[in-house]
Amino acid sequence: MKAIVQRVAQASVTVGGEQISSIGRGLCVLLGISLEDTQRELEHMVRKILNLRVFEDESGKHWSKSVMDKQYEVLCVSQFTLQCILKGNKPDYHMAMPTEQAESFYNNFLEQLRKAYKPELIKDGKFGAYMQVHIQNDGPVTIELESPAAAVDPKQVSKPERPSARNGCSGYAFTSEVYICLYVAQICESIALSEGSIPVMKQHSFLWA
């Protein structure tokens, strides 16, 4: 699932020359649903959108408040083209969820947003319709979200192994593959020296576990 979230001063949706939905200050969310999306992705995206801190606080400090903190509105528009894969210069949409399935999924997404926030502050376009979406971007601020988030959290990545005496070489932490390569190289050097095929050189000693 992909979403383009824009902080807006105002936004509206027009279908067939008639405005069907509009909001004042808040978020406009363009949502693209993929074939692989499940309830897990849906819930993740709902949480991210509602808690995304893109507004200022009372003192004017930026990136401090979410749409819920400010009690602003959210306008959602289904946009399958976010699941586009380019084949040369031609867009391909085979990764987008089929229309019938996607409509049910999208309605569930709206329902979860309304349950988590205030129903009257969640607005919608018209699923499957040809729409004109008028967005007055505030900033501009545009953020791309993808669900699920990256599997690896940078904060949870283990730190590199600190050099130790067992490495036999200051400043580096060797893997088992490196140890094997060094061991083979040392054997080859010893054989060559014994046969007198190369000049005697200072040998490097390594401590093996």
TrEMBL record:
Compartment(s) where it occurs, according to its Swiss-Prot or TrEMBL record: Cytoplasm
Keyword field contains Iron: no
MF (Gene Ontology): D-aminoacyl-tRNA deacylase activity; tRNA binding
EC number, as in UniProt: 3.1.1.96
Enzyme superclass (EC): hydrolase
Signal peptide span: none
Principal subcellular localisation of the protein: cytoplasm
Keywords: Cytoplasm, Hydrolase, RNA-binding, tRNA-binding
Catalytic activity: glycyl-tRNA(Ala) + H2O = tRNA(Ala) + glycine + H(+); a D-aminoacyl-tRNA + H2O = a tRNA + a D-alpha-amino acid + H(+)
InterPro entries in the cross-refs: Daa-tRNA_deacyls_DTD (IPR003732), DTD-like_sf (IPR023509)
Gene Ontology CC entries for this record: cytoplasm
Homology family: Belongs to the DTD family.
PANTHER family tied to this protein: D-AMINOACYL-TRNA DEACYLASE 1, D-TYROSYL-TRNA TYR DEACYLASE
Record protein name field: D-aminoacyl-tRNA deacylase
Lineage: Eukaryota, Metazoa, Chordata, Craniata, Vertebrata
Gene of this entry: DTD1
